[in-house]
Amino acid sequence: MIPFFFFFSPRYASAYTWQFTSQPSQCQNVSIAVQGSGQPPYNLLLVPSGPTPLPNNTEVRTIQNISFTGTSTSLSFKLNYPENSSFVAVVSDSSGFGSGGTSTPVTVLQSSDSSCYDTTKSVQGPWVFSVSPTGGITQCESVRLWWEQEFINGTVNFYGVIPGGNSFNIPQGSLSTNTDTGTGFNWTVDITGGTNIFVVAGDDRGIGSGGSAPFTVAYSANSSCLSGSSPSSTAGSPAGGSYPTSTSSSPSGSSGGHSNVGAIAGGVAGGLVAIVATALVGFFYFRRQKYSAVSKERPVNVLHDDDDDGSAPPHDLPQYYAPEPYLVPDPTIVGTSEAASTHDRPLSMTTADIPRPQTPGSMNTATSHTRKSALPPQLRPVNIIQHDDAGPSEVPTSAGEPETIELPPAYTNIRSAQRPPDTTPVPTTDSTPAPTETTTS
């Protein structure tokens, strides 16, 4: 693609190039040289650029149109521009205007000689031109270039000078005259919006006799007039070679000039930075998307409280983590009256009676109510001995013998004697009954 670009680019399509062979300085001789197979005679056009650096806005710069001598390929001339001012240079040959290319704005360096201009008088050309509408020029829209015919000498011509790009003849349409805009013609601006351009006017006295005016082409939604041959700025190093573009450059050096290698290096560095930035943005974006997707997934259930089929209740704990009731042990001492009625009272549930949630073959939830048993509970043998007087209980001789519990005297057999009518009460003597041994099995 690069060879094709060079071939079709207007700048590289030129059969010759040119460059400054000395640094432009105030009131000093400047030299340029042409290389290649151009068609002499050659011509140099200098167009002032930017504001004047002199006090009171005094403008001493004029458009200079300098011709090479015969078929010479070199030129030396005195630069009548003050230091810190700028200009744009255009080289042409007999094949057409701007055929050698256009430089970017060149800065005039300082010198001790200032005799080439008068700081008290502003220069003025023989005639000037105007543009309607006065707001400027717009991409693919028509503007009127006009002038006062009485100041013209011969034929009027207009030129477009694009710094660092193409310079061309502005096509002149049919001339018309009216009382508001004098004599002029309409021009459809076939230049891309955003392009900087100088419009230069001339007549038979030479290019620039009518002055120049800088414009920045305004953007427009209409692009029907643009094509591959439309005038524009060109990429790469501009015409003129290396020259100062600011006053910080050394008069004898060319470090202030344009460097194609520096431009390429800057472009490569910028491209690498853009690629790295894009890669980082993509990396963090996909990483964030990954973690967002993980966070939206179903949380890991370390308790496995859901069956695979989803049939279990959502709030039950797994069987190994289900709370179990703390059961009070069965009483080991049962009174005679209680033993007789155990088949009529509810029994506490044992561990085996409590189902675990999610256990196959059992209820899903544990019940909290009590139930009645159809059969009396199986009780172990207990010996109960009642004495008339309290005494120490006997210690079982072995663990296998029935447990004996001694109770204090109940005195339940002592009752008042019935006194018969009209009889003297007879004293009674309570006899202590023999110990009774009751065995409950």
Automatic annotation (TrEMBL):
Gene3D superfamilies: Single helix bin. Residues 230-253, 425-441 have a biased composition (Low complexity). Residues 230-258, 337-374, 387-441 are annotated as: Disordered. It comes from the Eukaryota. Residues 359-368 have a biased composition (Polar residues). Keywords: Membrane, Transmembrane, Transmembrane helix. The chain crosses the membrane at residues 261-286. Coiled coil: none annotated. This is Uncharacterized protein. It comes from Lactarius akahatsu.
